Amino acid sequence: MNKMILATALVCSSATVAMAGGYVAPVIESEPVVVAPAAAGWSGFYGGIQLGSAELSMEAIEDTGRHYGLHVGYLRDYGRLVAGAELSYDKLDDYDAIEIGREGAEGDVIRAKLLAGYDAGRFLPYAAVSYAQVTLEGGSESWNDNGFGLGLGAKFAATPRLMLGVEWMTNAFEYDCPQLEDSFDLDLSTISISASYRF
To answer: What are the entry keywords (predicted)?
Structure first.
């Protein structure tokens, strides 16, 4: 009986020693989980520059020139819906086929726009309506008119402050030609790329 107790004690003692000085599993520290900050949304004022091509078409005459200018605007983020307003000024030039006073036309256009878009994170596709005033000059003569228009575009939040954009917009006007004593439909269509600073 004593031998049995002694043997049992030796086995338990050996197991305890083995466990105390045996294999210990290494502690693996997990990498910290970095959570991307939530998007700040599209709400706020912005201003910037735009440039691109501008097509004037009147009856069977079409001429493509260029435009460049400035814009300011404000967007309000309602969740998935983003709405806003924008005011832009563009210089129009490099037209030879469209004549004012028998000379190639140049001029400018001022547009007031209302925008409605979809908040897709850093992308904002939108539709727009606009009311524009266009002025064309040639030689000593000039002509101006007001007209409504439609457009499509998209904005991209490159950084929290920098916003890039692309837009197509068209406006319809009525050109009164004194030489022919008649009026004609004149359409102005622009394709623009833009860069804006968000305040």
So the answer is: Signal
